[in-house]
């Protein structure tokens, strides 16, 4: 079980996988999810980040299409955000000096007993109960 951070979706959208290694690896990892070879989870926070970053870089129309593609992504399960999630995120921010969104991603994963996050964001390395891997 893996929690997938937004940068795994964003890199292949904004960078050329032929010239940016991280984008190529992320694209390959996403293909494995789509084929059902990897049990993957994300959240509405992930959708928000994907849509927002793509909107800033590539414009509204592409952002709308990519946001829909994210929500329709095969074999990706979307986990809820609850009040308890925010409380857990607050605790993680205080303990590890995380940014709010990173704390929310971590809290969502941990609330759902997911201990591995797939991300290029090294801030997740601070969290002792999570293991960060790159695709």
Which CATH class? Alpha Beta
Bulk shape: globular
- What is the averaged pLDDT score? 97
String of helices and strands: EHHEHHEHHEE
Helical stretch tally = 6
Question: Features of this protein?
Answer:
135 residues; alpha/beta; Rossmann fold; five-stranded parallel sheet; 56% helix; globular
Q: What does this molecule look like?
A:
The structure is a single chain. The protein has 135 residues and is α/β, with parallel strands linked by helices. It has a single domain, classed as 5'-nuclease (Rossmann fold), CATH 3.40.50.1010. The protein has 6 helices and 5 strands; from the N terminus they run βααβααβααββ. The protein has a 5-stranded parallel beta sheet with strand order 3-2-1-4-5. α1 runs parallel beside α3 (44-58) and α5 packs across α6. It starts with a strand and ends with a strand.
Write the layout of secondary structure elements.
Elements: E1 2-4, H1 6-14, H2 21-34, E2 40-42, H3 44-58, H4 60-71, E3 76-78, H5 83-96, H6 100-111, E4 116-118, E5 131-133
Q: Can I get a quick summary?
A:
The protein is α/β, with parallel strands linked by helices and 135 residues long. It is 56% helix and 11% strand. A 5-stranded parallel beta sheet has the order 3-2-1-4-5.
